[in-house]
Amino acid sequence: MTHLFLAWQHALPSDDARRRAWFPIGRLDRDDEGYHFVYTDGAQRAERESGFYPQLLAFPDLHRSYHSHQLFSLFQNRVLNASRSEYPDLLRWLDLPDGDRDPMKILAISGGKRQTDNLEVFPRIAAAADGGFSCRFFVHGMPYKNADCQERMARLVAGEPLGVALETTNPITGLAMQLQTSEYQIIGWAPQYLIEVLISAITQKSSLKATVVRVNPSPAPMNHRLLVELSGYLPAGMTPMSGPDFLPLV
Fold it and tell me: Cys-Cys with 139: which of 24, 188, 205, 214 at CB 3.0–4.6 Å?
């Protein structure tokens, strides 16, 4: 895992009925020289449409490339310290090998979400020569207060297939991708950053597949309860996450 994107969500007042938009605003890369961060054109679109401005203290200039031998604190602070007693539990929740200390792998699956801001980290999706792709993520927006949903989720097992359905009238995001049980019970949604990729995959003759990887009971936090792997095929010649929003400004 050598490439990650940073997304920002427009924080709207609770009485604002407009949809809350997500924007990819930056890209984090790792190579032999260390870590590199640049803003993407999505940051400028977020500025035009939703009032985003360079509010990240570590990266105050939209048109500058940042370099560090160590992982930038904005990202490091989103990874549990390996010395913490609950670190082995985190690796199990993420389905990563015992002792794995790669922060890029951890951020790619966990998303690095915090209660104190409206940022999220996600991996770059890469397609194979035949157009095939796969990605893992924790299910978003689970109906936490729905007892029936919680009971059904607890009975999911690793390897169990899930249904995938496009939702065109989601009251929060507009377009959304539902994840459903075999009984067509909605148990959550795919992350918004995958919508464009998933819609492209639906146009292919092969089906889009979602499979349960892990169900993590308490004390795992609610946003780490259900880990899913999604796979499919993209149209010939399509490079996912290559549109203007994802292009570096520098």
Answer: 188
